[in-house]
TrEMBL record:
UniProt keyword Magnesium present: yes
Function in brief: Required for correct processing of both the 5' and 3' ends of 5S rRNA precursor. Cleaves both sides of a double-stranded region yielding mature 5S rRNA in one step.
Top-rank EC class of the record's enzyme: hydrolase
Predominant place of localization: cytoplasm
Domain of life: Bacteria
Name of the encoding gene: rnmV
BP GO annotations: rRNA processing
SUPFAM superfamilies (UniProt xref): Toprim domain
Organism lineage: Bacteria, Fusobacteriati, Fusobacteriota, Fusobacteriia, Fusobacteriales
Residue span(s) of domain Toprim: 5-86
NCBIfam families, per database record: 5S_RNA_mat_M5
Keywords: Cytoplasm, Endonuclease, Hydrolase, Magnesium, Metal-binding, Nuclease, Ribosome biogenesis, RNA-binding, rRNA processing, rRNA-binding
The protein's name: Ribonuclease M5
């Protein structure tokens, strides 16, 4: 079993069970929007100073809000993402880290990225249109697939463009992901 040196931040107890089944790591549970408590954010800040932090929240709106809250309070944390498909339980449609297979969790943690301090504009809205990530009928699906490959998660077109630039994705890395999606 792989040992993760950073502390992993998850939303709830079921997420802990899923992550612990995949890797050996220390975890902090934020209990959803209770992440806003100063004591929780301080615990994350201290973990960032000591070991580094990987934020690993559900691939949904609430998960993104929790990420933003943590990123605003503790800049420099890494982010790991799974795709909605990998986090959705078939029998009832529940979406969460707790539904992901161990190999999906390991891959997501291996791809964890931190936001770049200096914003680098490598990508434009023109790139989004040119590569079918914006303005087309299949754009949403393509963003989901490319987001999983790059390890940056899903977002609408504007937010996806921001993630490409904030996470310092290289043009080469981006084009390889586009190529993989096009081969499907």
């Amino acid at each position: 079993m792989k040992k993760i040196m950073e502390t992993i931040v998850v939303e709830g107890r079921d997420d802990v069970t899923a992550v612990k089944a995949a890797v050996d790591a220390e975890l902090i549970i934020v209990n959803g929007f209770a992440v806003r408590k100063r004591t929780t954010l301080e615990k994350i800040r201290v973990a960032q100073e000591r070991t580094g932090v990987i934020v690993f929240t559900d691939p949904d709106f609430a998960g993104e809000k929790i990420r933003k809250t943590i990123e605003d309070y503790v800049p420099g944390v890494k982010h790991a993402y799974i795709g909605r498909k990998d986090g959705t339980r078939a029998r009832d449609g529940n979406v969460g880290i707790e539904n992901a297979k161990p190999e999906v969790i390991i891959e997501a943690l291996a791809k964890a990225k931190c936001k770049m301090v200096d914003r680098i504009e490598n990508f434009t809205s023109g790139d989004m249109i040119e590569y079918g990530l914006s303005g087309g009928g299949e754009s949403k699906v393509r963003r989901q697939e490319v987001g999983v490959i790059l390890g940056i998660g899903y977002a609408n077109a504007k937010q996806f463009l921001s993630k490409l630039n904030h996470f310092g994705i290289s043009r080469e890395e981006f084009l390889k992901a586009i190529e993989k999606v096009d081969k499907k």
